[in-house]
Amino acid sequence: MSAEIIALIVFAGVFAVSAIRNVHMGxxxxxxxxxxxxxxxxxxxxxxxxxFPVDTLLILxxxxxxxxxxxxxxxxxxxxxxxxxxxxxxVSLLPWAMWLIGTGVACLGxxxxxxxxxxxxxxxATTHRISPTLMGIxxxxxxVGGALAPTSINxxxxxxIAEDTGLPYNAGLMFVLSVGxxxxxxxxxxxxxxxxxxxxxxxxxxxxxxPGSATGTLSSSTGTLSSGTGTMAMTDTTTAQPITRIxxxxxxxxxxxxxxxxxxxxxxxxxxxGVVALTLAVILSLLVPDVGRRAMSKVDWGxxxxxxxxxxxxxxxxxxxxxxxxxxxxxxxxxPLIAAIVICVIAGLVSAFASTIGILGALIPLAVPLLMPGGxxxxxxxxxxxxxxxxxxxxxxxSTTGATIVASAAEQERPLLSKRLTAWGFAMVLIxxxxxxxxxxxxxxxxxx
Length: 449
Prior knowledge:
Number of strands: 2
Region (Disordered): 203-231
Oligomer: single chain
Transmembrane segments: 26-42, 49-68, 96-122, 134-153, 173-193, 248-267, 273-292, 304-323, 329-350, 421-442
Keywords: Membrane, Transmembrane, Transmembrane helix
Strand content: under 5%
Organism: Nonomuraea solani
Domain Dicarboxylate carrier MatC N-terminal: 1-146
């Protein structure tokens, strides 16, 4: 048995053992990377750890630490309070509003900037009794949908790959298709995870004239949220709490994070969002050390280890050539349409654990023979289907996007949210390719035939 097959079997075993024995998957994957890398591939420790995603983990650390500061200072509560007053009884619009905001921010140079919106969205979900799964999928769809904009790094990268390989590509059409597909994904999640109930609640609250429905209170003495029956409630008699100086400082910090990162990206300055967020969090902790110490407990180290372990093992698979072999296997299929579906499924499956752009960079060139004249898929929307299929799975907690969403949720919600996002992500591995191939590849083939 080849080393590539052994490595893939071990990778599958990591998931099985983690599920059966309830062992932390990240720690298990990291140990498996050492065993396979050293024992079967003959790599050194430095080579194995080269794939440890320090940049990605810095993003998780910086974002969760900074927003831990925002939570501890009551800034998130203040934002939630104001959002409740603005939304009133229209709570069913919140997932869509956050999706639109997240999509817009993700278009601004890098989708990572939209990670700054995720903790606010997840806090709103808890406050308004919105399913965290619904809000998580909405934010994931916003991030991956906006990421393929012509102004975003991912969109620019796909366009560059297409140009280098000589494939026809329209950046504007790519963005429209990406946003459209992700809007349908949010709609499906809305219908499956409590959207109709939110609409009924909105209508009842509107009819009663009470935007809060007496589900809880906002403490006038502390300015913090109390859960009442598990949600936040606002009544017409509650008095808006004045914003404190430290909350103003934190709000300015969050603005600097988003606006500053966007500006640096436009100026083509290479900077890690996590480094910026971590720097701002440290500055805040110097102003309020006690809050800084409490905020450190908000960092989801378990999710960081999960992402680090999985991506390190995927690095071993990549260097071993297992990923390339999967692509070659797809190309060996004699029917181009089936080969296209196989490549999209592989892209989605691997992208759930590794860099989406990295996977596209590897698989688009492998698909070139299918897309050239005589290859069976000439002048079709395959490249659009491939890019979207690889992106839809990013809600899984093994990806940076999914990990950020889970880390931003309330602690008691994380286990169930992680399971649901995992199931949703793996469902997208099959649903995404099927839907995109049927809508973007098959029609041109039928018209041409």
